[in-house]
Specification:
The structure is a homotetramer of 342-residue chains.
Chain A: E1 4-9, H1 14-23, E2 29-35, H2 44-47, E3 59-60, H3 64-70, E4 73-76, H4 83-92, E5 97-99, H5 108-115, H6 122-125, E6 129-130, E7 143-145, H7 149-158, E8 171-176, H8 191-194, E9 199-201, H9 208-219, E10 227-232, E11 239-245, H10 253-263, E12 270-274, E13 289-296, E14 301-308, H11 312-327
Parallel strand pairs in A: 1-2, 1-4, 2-3, 4-5, 5-7, 6-7, 8-10, 12-13
Antiparallel strand pairs in A: 8-11, 9-10, 11-14, 13-14
Chain lengths: 342, 342, 342, 342
């Protein structure tokens, strides 16, 4: 089978270094070069000593022309607001891009409202396919906008159910480990602040809300604005999305079971737990998603709990899964690590 | 002002030792003796080296007659299922009891269903007053059934709102630190299992559900069965209760603000945060409760977040607050510690 | 008994806010005003919601003249390098100062070498008494230089033993929780970096080394340069100092036991655990110090393990203890909180 | 290249399930069957949901005859005291065994003293080779006794130095995450007890002491009894061994550097950090070992800090590395995962 060469731009961020780490095991993707705006000329192994053993992996500046000459695809692991400045030249030359930021997930108006930054040109944004691997055919695609971590967990919970739930009933209480807050040094990611704590932030204002809504609405236009909470768990890795839903009249627990089983019957990474709720140990360290659900007949509320590793299935792992799908590699290539469990 | 003497039965459990610790600072309550079914004859300072400095505090067997001769009130910090075996002799002699277990919180039928244990006699159960300090007049009472930790957080969130919310809309997503799971060695409280994890347990089956329901229903009989999730946070102390609610037609955000301010305007321990959500650092180590709320006009959902220290306001601290109210001591006596914050 | 009024300068740092919190319970010290260089004019309760319940505690700029008119003593909870800029005016007027920074702990030459900052004038430095409460008579003193957290733990371990150990044998392996690293946002205090980790820093370069050495050498001039490691534990509060020592010829385990018992026989805060090693739960939240030791006859090594809460006995608590001693208040006034244990 | 088949006995313990997890990626070792004394007949995927996706991996009872018929090698991931009851039948038939317990690491007398259990017969014990991969030629061996986690970290620190250090000077301060304490539910591994804590246990009594001593003494018979502390870090995975040493007269820092470089110049897994101390993030999740050292000329103490993942290089990973060496597979086969870093 074919092997492709890739460059990672933004390798020093959490998603970037995770991409590098995971791709070291990939049988069909070879990382040819790594790039960043800072630390250029330094050895990646010096900055990230878990990577190397004396090996030289020099961080290069971003030279798009040069990159397009030497690799087949570029990963943009750059923060939202930066990717769109990087992507232009690649798009112009129709060169394959997988973007892990939020820059190509939303139409300009929504982007500017929720991100409070200038949006990428609509002409660029429209060329991207939203890469929720389990729900889109990505074979042969060239430009992938990789989903957000909260969005991945929430969409995998709700998409199987869009037609059997009361659309107005959706409430999501989502939680994330601190790696989800990124590498920048902020008061809320200071160890002392987050340790032993649980804090809710950006209530109803998280930028993954419109991303989730637009995908849900594409499947069921009756779905209204989403009620969505985001909180920080005092751990490093993990997303938990707990959703509360009412069923449409006439729908039953069996319809729910069936919907989940049907949706993920061929999925390599989604594990259905039915009435036993999953926990983070089952997924952290892997590209797995675990989903549990339970219907309470007395309250008529369906609870769905979905867990995943925000840096893998919520970022770098899903990006690799998407490249596998784009190129027709086995979907699990390079992603067969099990969760470390403990 | 008067000083009373107290005995603690069950001093070696988490609530019992916390009671002992807090009462050491109380100006009007003196711990005369400590009791347990195990470790009798041992020095409490040896088992709990944070307590003493060579001091002898011998753990005594439970001899109700002797206790009633020497103290004015007994705290039962015994587990659910044990308190009812202890309380009988005290009740017979009309001797003041504050029970921290679930044994006197529910009518027999509900107790047996949710606790799966034989209930205390109805004649005993009826003599107890449910001691949610902020919502009951406890002056002159003799028998207090101290609320559960989840119940305290949830009721303090919802009681101000019972008349202005759509009764059918209540969904509570509650989380607790591991001390809430008690001292017994179980697979779920093993360090390795809980560390770096988040797990949901007893979904729709937690024994605090009927306790919460009966108090809510006493204020508004239209409130139906409660949707209630409970999860373990990988920390030691803290309860977070996040509630999702719809308002009754015609009710607005201002009504919510007003309801909270009215309910707690004279409360020494409830801090209202309005639209800034509280976190656990604000309450852990103190008897404080902090409540934040926000109404989302687009989804018409009101989110209420309440935090407290499960061992203090959720157990031992509230028990002391209740004794203060029973005897007319200042409500904050012995409870003026601030949260340790970091 | 007399009550004094105090001002806290640097109230927004970890030591400053801890001082404020602890002094709220002090029967003889009243905090009259709080000061900082930033956040002037803001309400302390807004910045630290665990403090207040709507109360206004306005942060004031530092106006030394005004402070000296209204209070009896000033706490400098300012960082090293800042205290010396604050202290001058107070010293000029012979106004009582307790400084929690390192600025008055070392002679100028040592200070400039280890802190890499300009030192306070020698004429000022000499007026300060080093406030290791258990080892100095502080009654009537006016200027206290409060010890560092590592220094407190290490000196309380070693001072009783200076005459019975082989002076050349001392090796200290010390560990600290993250609050010891302060409030500034650094890569090493980022949650993601410290979580699940253990890292050794400033090996042989920590600024508490000369502070410890000079006190030890004042008791035994034969003590040479100190071997001292410092590491970060992934927790918020706590210092652990593990010391490895050889005994002088002819000295035995009994001499060690005797030395500890003699040294701390009248100490209110030092708990001797003998051959049962203490852990952090016994001290965190209190001004207590717990010391355990064990002699290994096969290796002829004495291990001493000392634990304390770095923000209390290692900073704010010891500062209060020192004021108690200066003014002849009971040594434990305001400091009778037990460790929270769990 | 050849592929061998293996059975895992004790698959439900932490080392056993970690072996299973890691072997899933091994190109030359296939797990043919898994065995335990409990949970026989259950699906491993049900007990450990991170493992499977509906797959049936039935836990079988231990039938040695049957195992020898179907596989080429057996891993004993059984606790100390149990392995020796399992190993006999395999040894009788000269069937390859890798034992992860302590049962074949020590001569009978030492074993019975330090483990307080009956020892395996000397005739069996002598057939085992101690499998410290970097220091033994294991090619063609049949019976491997896999080293303990503390022993691995300490020996990799000290073996390069045995000839250049003052033999009497060795002091080791070692720390372990909670997975090192195993799966049994004990008071010290209860979440509430270990959280936010640091506790030293089995001081001078840990069963890895004689294991370390005998290997050191085999390289330098002048090495006396070892001073060795063991403490629990409030994390799941990781060993830190901090060693304090004096150099022999005439030896210098350069000799230390040289000794480490020489010892590990061909090592695939040992990373030398020289004067930058490593942390746990560099190794957890991988079979890597990272070693840093620094000589303090003023105290004449050499500090060596070694970190590894106790379940991988300290147990299951090293067992796999050893099988690779026994069979002449590439040493890193199945072990090329990098540390997860964050």
């Amino acid at each position: 089978m074919e092997t492709i060469k890739a460059a990672i731009i933004g390798v020093t961020g959490y998603s970037g270094i995770e991409l590098y780490r995971l791709l070291r095991q990939h049988p069909h993707i070879e990382v040819q070069s790594v790039h960043a705006s800072q630390s250029v000329g330094q050895n990646l192994s010096d900055l990230f000593p878990h990577i190397g053993n004396g090996q030289e992996i020099i961080i290069e500046a971003v030279d798009s022309e040069q990159i397009m000459k030497t690799v087949d695809l570029v990963f943009l692991a750059t923060p939202s607001g930066y990717s769109k400045d990087m992507a232009g030249l690649f798009l112009e030359q129709d060169f394959p891009v997988v973007d892990l930021s939020g820059d190509y997930r939303l139409p300009a108006e929504a982007y500017e409202k929720w991100y409070d930054k200038p949006a990428a040109p609509a002409s660029e944004q429209e060329r991207f396919t939203y890469g929720l691997s389990e729900w889109t055919n990505l074979f042969g695609k060239k430009f992938i906008s990789n989903p957000g971590c909260y969005a991945t967990a929430t969409l995998l919970s709700l998409l199987p159910l869009v037609d059997i739930i009361d659309e107005k009933s959706i409430i999501v209480d989502a939680k994330s480990g601190l790696t989800g807050a990124g590498k920048s040094l902020t008061a809320s990611s200071h160890f002392v602040q987050a340790y032993g704590n649980y804090s809710t932030y950006k209530l109803n204002r998280h930028q993954h809300i419109p991303e989730i809504m637009q995908v849900l609405q594409a499947h069921n236009p009756d779905i209204p604005h989403l009620q969505f909470s985001t909180s920080l768990l005092p751990i490093n890795r993990g997303i938990v999305a707990t959703s509360y839903l009412h069923l449409k009249d006439g729908m039953t627990e069996e319809d729910v079971d069936l919907a989940f089983k049907e949706a993920y019957k061929e999925s390599a990474f989604v594990q259905l737990h039915g009435h036993q709720f999953p926990d983070l140990h089952q997924v952290v360290g892997s590209n797995r998603v675990a989903i549990g659900w339970e219907y309470n007949p007395r309250t008529e509320v369906l609870t769905v709990m979905t867990v995943l590793d925000n840096l893998i299935k919520g970022a770098a792992g899903q990006a690799i899964q998407n490249v596998n799908l784009m190129y027709g590699f086995p979907e699990t290539a390079g992603l067969d690590n099990l969760a470390s469990y403990i």
